[in-house]
Amino acid sequence: MNEKVLAPGVAKREVWAWAMYDFANSGYTTVVITAVFNAYFVGVVASNAPWATFAWTLALSASYLLIMVTAPLIGAHADARAAKKRWLLATTIGCVLGTAGLYFAGPGGLVVAVLFLVLSNYCFGSGENLIAAFLPELAEGDSLGKVSGWGWSLGYLGGLFSLGACLTYVTWAQGQGQGAAEFVPVAMLITATLFALASLPTFLFLRERATPLAADRIPGFGAAFERLRETWHHSRLFPDMRRFMLCIVFYQAGIQTVVALAAIYAEQAMGFQTADTIKLVFLVNVTAAIGAFTFGYMEDRIGHVQAIQLTLVGWIVMVLLAWGAEGATMFWVAANIAGLCLGASQSAARALVGALAPPARHAEFFGLWGLAVKFSSVLGPLTYGAVTWITGGNHRLAILVTGVYFVIGLLILRGVDAQRGHRAALESELPDQA
Questions:
Q1: Are the C-beta atoms of 46 and 52 separated by less than 8 Å?
Q2: CA distance 434 to 430
Q3: What is the structure's pLDDT at 322?
Q4: What is the rounded CA–CA span in Å between residue 128 and residue 370?
Q5: What is the DSSP code string of 162-182?
Q6: DSSP 104
Q7: Sign of the torsion formed by the C-alpha atoms of 202, 205, 209 and 211
Q8: HSE (side-chain half, CA atoms, 13 Å) at 359
Q9: Got the DSSP string for 313-375?
Q10: Most buried of 229, 261, 275, 360 (most Cβ within 10 A)?
Q11: What residue ranges define each of the domains in the chain, with the CATH number in brackets?
């Protein structure tokens, strides 16, 4: 690791500890949201009912709506009290307990499944915003892409580790004649345990560098919404940030759909079994790690906007291949293109937000970023779920509709100027800056 890419006073161990949170929480999203529990929810918990996919997307949407309401509050409070790390610990505990609770979601246990899914995904998404807000404190401005890429690539390795552990257990369980109703709950316990253990370095070594405001200047939670309104009002001074937030809503709607429904599409449209789906997502995580790491270096040279443009073109190609795939080979190709684009686009987006955000309000503006992503997480999957419900289970049409979001995002991105936006952020003089 090159010291020149790190901010003054930041040690290598601390950056590793920060990146280890991506390693830790990726197991949750990989196993629960992408590879295992989503298909289990549709096929076992909801018994393949016509509304099953829509119910899955509705449960996820409820958690994302909760995040949208509370993320600005948490971000503003974390900035004012220099409490990002404390909030991160609370959300981590919540996600670990919620994931473990999915153990009790068996056949017909729809209420239990929905409650623990909403809890775990809410805490996961809230923690994702908080860990991202540490990035500008750790990296030099010209190296946000590199450091972000380290985190994302290590995160995909974490997803691989958790997925590999679950695959090992699932393969053994199937060899013993067990069905999904028996081995998937245990996979949830494995995922929760690994999340808890892998996140320990973050809480041991990551420092809270922000300075808390004086007690008489700390806003209450009621004032946080007012500050959010002011932040959005002042964001007119940052047109590139505003435009990129709009861009995020659309192209992330496509990404979040793929993440939340990949296993469901594989099993419902392509006829994959649980073990086959886990193997597919396992390989996709390898390509995602490669994409995050290599694009992290590339984007610092070609620019964050150009890097995201390349990935959006890749996403469009992926959708067309998945839609037209008649056999497993073409679908595997499409899935690995998705992996490369996923790692690259997620890393580049986090770095670009860091470059466009005013320095004194990183947590709050990353909260806005999280707000945009979570809104897209409602928009995209609900669109997919509604299409499958209305059409009686036409998953191919649903994935094709998903591609429209990538096209819209690409068109909006053309108007974002990263250098101009970064200058505006550095020159800004927002009120109440710490």
A1: yes
A2: 10
A3: 94
A4: 8
A5: HHHHHHHHHHHHHHTT--HHH
A6: G
A7: positive
A8: 14
A9: HHHHHHHHHHHH--SHHHHHHHHHHHHHHHHHHHHHHHHHHHHHS-GGGHHHHHHHHHHHHHH
A10: 261
A11: 11-206+233-427 (1.20.1250.20)
Nearest partner of 346 among 373, 317, 378, 316, judged by Cα: 373
Query: Coil, helix or strand for 259?
Result: helix
Half-sphere exposure of 222 (CA within 13 A, CB side): 0
The number of CA neighbours under 13 Å toward the Cβ of 353 is: 28
The whole-angstrom separation of Cα 355 and Cα 350 is 9
Show the tokens assigned to 52: 């099953």
What's the chain's average pLDDT?
86
Q: Which residue has the tokens 């996979």?
A: 187
d(CA 373, CA 349): 10
Give the integer Cα–Cα distance in Å for 161 and 168: 11
* 206, two tokens: 């990551």
> Which segment, 265-269, 281-285, 320-324, is predicted with the most confidence on average?
320-324
Q: Supply 68's token pair.
A: 């949208």
Please report which confidence band the pLDDT of residue 251 belongs to, taking 50, 70 and 90 as the band edges.
very high
Q: pTM of the predicted model, to two decimals?
A: 0.80
3-state secondary structure (DSSP) of residue 288: helix
Structure confidence at residue 432 (pLDDT): 47
Distance separating alpha carbons of residues 383 and 404, to the nearest angstrom: 11
361 by Cβ neighbours in 10 Å (0-12 / 13-18 / 19+) ranks as buried
Distance in angstroms (rounded) separating the CA atoms of residues 249 and 306: 18
- Report CA-CA distances (Å) from 45 to 103, 113, 164, 191, 257: 12, 8, 24, 19, 20
| DSSP of 114-167 | HHHHHHHHHHHHHHHHHHHTTHHHHB-GGGHHHHHHHHHHHHHHHHHHHHHHHH
DSSP 8-state class, residue 213: P
Closest CA to 31 of 195, 174, 151: 195
Average pLDDT over residues 355-370: 73
Which of 117, 135, 277, 123 shows the shortest CA–CA distance to 196? Answer: 123
Beta bridge partners, 6, equal 139
